[in-house]
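Exam review. A common question shows you a sequence with its structure tokens and asks you to describe the fold in words. Practice with the pair below. Do the first one on your own.
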Amino acid sequence: MAVTSKRSKYFDNAKFVLIILVVFGHVISPLKEHDGVLYNIYSIIYLFHMPAFIFISGYFSKGYQNEGYYRKLIKKLILPYFIFQFIYSVFYYAIGKEASFQVDFLQPHWSLWFLLSMFFWNLLLIPFAKLKWLGLPVAIMIGIGAGYIDQLGSFLSLSRTAVFFPYFFAGYLISGPQLKGLLGGKYSRAVGITILIGAICLFGTSISQNTVPWLLGDSSYAAMGNEGVEAGFYRGVLYIITAMVVFGFLTLIPSIQFSFTEIGERTLYIYLFHGFIIKPVHSIIPKESFTSVTGSYLLLFGFSFIVCLLLGSYLVKKFTRPFVEPKLSFSGNSGK
């Protein structure tokens, strides 16, 4: 498993698989209430797909002290956030999802929370990196403690920033040789497969009905119906389970070049644009037709796969790059 190359095929393959799961999860989200199998699939996907994405993002944030690093982040994350927050506001109003047109930059639309949180996670490296591995339990305690604060929620994605930061920080902390040794050990794949089978058996049952809200990371414990002190213990256990499943997933990713590998470089384009395809499709399908649609699992996955291939194409990147990667000049020499 090659994990140290400048443009790693391993990580591009992992990101491609993960972005398919992101899109598939969003495709089945409004359908899962009508099909128990889809609900269980949804819970399994959300158990690890964003934590794995965030872990990989943290792994590639090791240059946060480099000159111009945060200027690049503003161009890559903050500016696109403002652009797409406005575009989605127009889009939601146009398709009738919002009764009136309004733009609120403090409440990220749908998947745009990730851009804000990614920027905040990188900022958090400034104090946390000094703590090294001692900072990981601190990050976990902050993630657990965030659940007791009702006011966080989706405002500036603060709840998700706190809840998911341990995965990002763990990715930052682990080195290439350490990750290679962890995932490429003699029994790593066998252990990983065993963990995944166990997770599928566990979360492929009725337990998923109560777990999904916990996997989203955007609500307080009270909002999820658990106001007891033990709620923090539940999140701690979930951290452990999720970390194990992320490990299991990463052991299965190949390092060889596939025809779709390069799409792993363009996952941001897929992430930002897939809502403009999925949301209209959801609005077109009559609610009474949901029952027939939900049973077509392969069709739903195939649709998600095609959306990823389309939005991850070179042409889409070529014509939409000004929105996703806008050019912005900064004066001054400070990188932070």
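Now try the second one, then compare your answer with the model answer below.
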Amino acid sequence: MVIAVTGAAGMLGATVVQRLTGAGFAVTGVDLRAAPDGPDTSGYRHLVGDIRDPAVLRAAFDDADAVVHCAAALPSYPPEQIRAIVVDGSRAVLDAARAARVPRLVYISSTAVYGLPTQVPTPEQHPYAPVDAYSTAKADAERLAVGYREHGLILPVLRPKTFLGPGRMGLFAMLFQWAHEGRNFPVLGDGSVRIQMLHVADLVDAVETVLRVPAEAANDTYNIAAATFGTLREDFQAVLDAAGHGKRVIGLPARPARAALALLERSGLSPVYGRLLHKLTADSYVDIDRARHRLGFHPRHSNRDAVLETFRWWRGQQATTAATTASGPTSRDPWRQGVLAAARVFF
């Protein structure tokens, strides 16, 4: 099979490329950035270009048996940029796949389409309930994508929880840096909320599965997440313990801390966006039974496995200096901590 992967230089896209080339697929990647350095990827060609450029997509999808659409924006992007990448970019990819008569397209969505659900665990049939620019764009793009099934496109939709693994930084770089420096780490409230995450390897397992299964199983929507996860306090404490400084997770009064962080975000002084503030103070996990039963999906990693492996990778990168200076345009980059970088002296 010949597979085209959008967002192929991103953390998820690059991991998909490595898995598929290792499994013997011929892969064409598309990204605005050059292909990242990594393991040998013979059988891979990389095109630098925008997913909204029809000429780039024609070149990428020529002779493709399937597309894996990983390209996306981050919640920290400006709203107009989120919409342009997520909605307009997805429309261009879907149109190009249809024009090239690609039979199957794996659409990477997000559990953000549920907004802030009160039904936990959240099933796939939960209605779209977006609450911000990012979740609205993801919901609109997913609606658009599912509509292409009517044109005969086999279109698996995967809705992953926040995924981690080697190559992931983003806001997790703040936890890793503080742990590495021997500081306590604050959480909102007492940290007893259960926040489900996902190892990127398990997400890629699901991608490979829906590329291979029969159409009747593939042509559906699936939550993809860890099966084993603890509280936020437990998972973050595991990182502090691994750092070896004897530090602890410190609870902060939830309401005043959330109000202060919301004000800092509006002022551009904090990377902690609004929907995340709410997620960190309530249980957030999804039902993965549909993927278990229809795809045979059995995640191999717990939350703790994912966060600890990512922390070990981060320490190996010696990224502590970059963590306070990079702008964080992708999930491969540490996000700028803003005023929170100065606040760590109190912990």
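Model answer, second protein: The first strand starts at residue 2 and ends at 6. The CA atoms of residues 291 and 297 lie 5 Å apart. Full marks require stating both points clearly.
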